[in-house]
Each structure stands twice: as C-alpha cells, then as structure tokens.
Amino acid sequence: MYKFFLRPLLFLLDAETAHHVTFFAIRLLSKLGITSLFRKICVVEDPRLEREVFGLRFKNPVGLAAGFDKDAKLYNELSDFGFGFVEIGTLTPKPQPGNPKKRLFRLKEDKAIINRMGFNNSGVFDAVERLKKEHRVLIGGNIGKNKVTPNEEAAKDYLICFDALFEHVDYFVVNVSSPNTPGLRELQEKEPLMELLKIMKRENKKYAAKFKTAEKPILLKIAPDLSEEQLMDIIYIVKATQLDGVIATNTTIERKGLKSHLTLAEEKGGLSGKPLAQRSTEVIRFLAEKSNKAFPIIGVGGIHSPEDALEKLDAGADLVQLYTGFIYEGPSLVKKINKSILERA
Predict the structure, then answer these.
(1) Where is the Dihydroorotate dehydrogenase catalytic domain positioned along the sequence (predicted)?
(2) 145 annotated to a ligand binding site
C-alpha cells in the first residue's frame, strides 16, 4: 500500500513538506486510535530478536536513526511501526532554524536523499518537555552544537544537552560528523575529539552519582568519509576513553556513481540512502575487525532491504538503524528485517 499509493502521493510534494505532512498524519491517526492497528500489523515480537547492547535491553535490533524525529514529537507513535529503539535529534542547546530552504532533495533514481538541514530543531529544553511523558520504546538522544558556537567552546553545548537529557533518554550520541554545520567535522580530529569525549565521560559519572543511577551509554557517530588512518584513531579514542560504542555512519559528502540529474546530484549537503550502503558496511567491517570487536557498533546507511540489514550485522554491527530506507520502502521494511533475522536464528 505504501509504495504503490502513499509514497507516490508524498513524492508529489517537496521533500520537507512531505515530512511535515507525514508527521501530521501520524499524529492524527494516533489521536483517532488507529496507530494501535499499526502495532498489530508491523510489530514482530519474539525473544530471539532481543539484544542486550551497552547494558540496554532492545526488543529488536532495528531502530529509527536520528533526523527523522528531531524534536522528540512522535517517538512513541513511531515505535508502533515496529522499531526496537528511536533516536531523537540532533538537538542543540538553543533553538535554531537550520539552513535556508530548499535544503532537502530526493534522488529518486538512486533511492537517495541529500540534506543540508543544519541541525534545525526547537532546542533541547523544548524536547525535554515532550520527553517527560511515558516512553514505550528505548530513546537515544543525539546531541550537537549550535552553529554560532565556535569549536573551542563546543564542549559547553554538548554538556548543556547532556545535562538536560540525562533523566529522559536511554543513551546518548555525540554527533560531530554532520557535514551541514560549518567546522563541525573538525571535531572528529584526534585531539579535539579525545578532549570532548573525556569531558562527556566525566559529566556522565557526575550525573550518575547525583541521581544514584547507572551511567548512560555514550556513543560516537562518525562520518563515512574518514580514511583508514582516521578510523584507527577512532578505535584508539573509543578504547582510551572507554566509550560505549560507535554509530557508523552519518551521511557522506561523496557523489560518485550517482544516476540522478547532475544538477540535483551536486546539491550541497550529506548524501544518504542506497549509494551509501557499501561504504558504511566497509566502515563497520573495518572497525569490527581492527578493534577485534572491542565495542558495539550501530550500523546505518543505505538499508533498503532485509539483505542490506543482514549484511551490516554480518559485517559486525550489533544493531541497525533506518532513515532513507524507511522513507523509500515504508514501514513494512522494519517487519521484513526482523522476520529475516528470525529466519536465521
């Protein structure tokens, strides 16, 4: 139904407009009580799907990546589509509008999306108010810095978000890999990244003691465009700081081999979807093999089929996330992946 009826209608709209229409529709259906029907159709429940990763128990290994529910508006409703976890954000301390529109582009021939959203969000404190309601699903909090914050003060922004979200999310993701905030990827360099993560770990211990609870898992989201030398640095940093895991990968600035119209393909921003599949899997495999599987990995990038998801799990991912594949293939993709995992169990 989605691919043959709903998707063609949504694809008649501008990509960002279609996103807002989709959110409006999901919210309306929830108020009418119809999303409970989605749970019956989409959710696959089986103990063999459960995963314990960085101290958390996931009902299944398929999550929704950050960027879809930036402001924590529909995390419970989105879980009705069968996701085992939902990652909100990227959130910043202060609200920011993001980059000028038009900033989201579909590359239909490539089953891809280019975005240069620029961390558009209503601010971490606005999201916290919505996160105070009961959660039906594990929530990840993806955090970043405001565009106007210089890199030498970036840690302050990450700490503000961490402090605000500590009681309301199950794990954190430090996003230093988006290509759409000027200078952000410079924080992936060895020395600034090591310093930022050490600060985050110290804050984690402090807040765990304050609230008499366990420390929250902290993950690092990395770009697919890192060299092997940089990836080896990532492995060293994760081990040295005792970070809880890595998300591989964010969007790419590469444009090789695209079929879509040249003008469209050359739009600035991060590319996600099928063209990213091979590279993100290569990064997952490299990290898993070179680290001797020393830390958990969440695999994301170009998952449009159960086979794509299984490939990432076989490469060394412990969990996977969808974003562009969810948009192109629809909610049935989550169920298909979980069923494929069960077939191999």
Answers:
(1) 49-343
(2) no
